[in-house]
Amino acid sequence: MATRTTSLGGSGSTADQLAVRRHNLAVVMTHLRTNGPRSRARVAAETGLNKGTVSSLVAELVARGLVTEGETERGGMGRPGQVIDLDRVNYVAIGAEINIDYISVLAMNLRGETVAEKRIPLDTAHMAPDDVIRHLARTAKTVISQMERRGSSAIGMTVAVPGIVDSSSGVVFDAVNLGWPQIPVGEVVRQRLGDPPFPIYIDNEANASAIAELVERGAEQPEDLLLLTGGVGVGGGIVARGELVRGARGFAGELGHMQVNLNGRRCGCGRIGCWETEVGLGALLRLATTSGDLVRDPTVDLVDRLEELRRRAESGNKKTLRAIEAVGGWLVEGATSLVNIFNPQVLVLGGYFAVLGPWVTTALEEGLAAQVHAPEAGGCRVELSTLGFSAAVRGGAHHAIRSVFDDPTAVPLLETIAASAKGATS
Ligand SMILES: [Zn+2]
Question: By CB distance 3.0 to 4.6 Å, which of 137, 186, 287, 379 could disulfide with 323?
Fold first, then answer.
């Protein structure tokens, strides 16, 4: 990630100077996240800020509980410097996900480390929305209290949902695979959590996953990335010039409802032959299993069910391999159109597609090379996500934590927190 720096000039108003300082605090935080722990001198050399400025910025970040001082960095010329790093205890962000067959909650610290994670198999498609949200809120409350006991405050939470989401209002308009009508998920989650003192964001599950794919590549972040995430539904996250493409009203990326087979099956959205009717998990299970097979049982953890499918494919089970081949063919079909349109540097297969990786990657690479109009598939390479079913919750947590990286002064000084706690108890 490119870091831009601004030096404090001699002129300009106090407001300008405060804005510059806030920007530089953000530069130091982001630099540590992208590049890892290092000395103040190294941060100065790498960001172009002067050493005195960096020392003063770091002092403020330490006072806000965002940065900690670690051991001494040796090697190189000159005096050894103390290494600074993002704090791992004071603050966490919460990522939550409602999906078909499971709910999930994760707490992540400023370093991007997972501090707690709970995924619960739940037949969400056959439950009332309010019951699903109640389960999610209960799980989130458990994680948040666990965090409070270790001295960590939640600074924000994102709930990822597989549907059409208006992020600005927190309303989910249509989640066809959950069978949900329009629901103000943001408002209901806030009520169920007892109106907590942090922001709650609602996002589409594939968008949240794409944020994780982007942020977690650190300094290696590609500018143009296309994420295809496979579950019962198929979602897409489009990243262009380093930013997630959300479209005019935030509804971009509904790749699963791209029509690919006019003679196909009816989709949950009501149309015929949408891509997800051919490549969604439902299609694979329909082809690879018969009714009563434990792999179809929504009460069994999805990871275990997919592990069983992987085991069958590895042992050469013909029915499983034929099913994967059929799904892989349709995967190539849709991906070719998308690569023609977006010309991504990297096409990431996420969700259950990543589990199929060993069997579909070669077919996909060959299919793209043969069918994409541009030479060599426009330079697009295929990668498998390594985030598993944690992608959306990790991306959600990254999204919720972003406000602190954008403006570190959004969190109070530790002194202020201590004083108000003292005031509250006296
Ligand atoms: Zn559809």
Answer: 287
| pLDDT tens profile 229-264 | 998 889 999 999 999 999 988 899 999 999 999 999
Percent of the chain at pLDDT > 90 equals 78
With a cut of 50, say whether residue 8 has pLDDT above it.
Answer: no
User: How far apart are the C-alpha atoms of 256 and 175, rounded to whole Å?
Assistant: 12
How many whole angstroms from 265 Cα to the centroid of ligand 1? 10
Distance 280 CA to ligand 1 centre (A): 11
pLDDT in tens, 90-119: 999 999 999 988 999 999 999 999 999 999
DSSP state letters, 277-344: HHHSHHHHHHHH--TT-GGG-TTS-HHHHHHHHHHHHHTT-HHHHHHHHHHHHHHHHHHHHHHHHH--
Contacts 24+ apart (CB under 8 A), 409-414: 409/22, 409/25, 409/64, 411/64, 411/65, 411/66, 411/91, 411/155, 412/64, 413/63, 413/64, 414/63, 414/64, 414/65, 414/90
Tell me, in angstroms, the distance from the centre of ligand 1 to residue 52's CA.
57
Q: How far is the CA of 274 from the centre of ligand 1 (A)?
A: 5
Q: What global pTM score does this model have?
A: 0.88
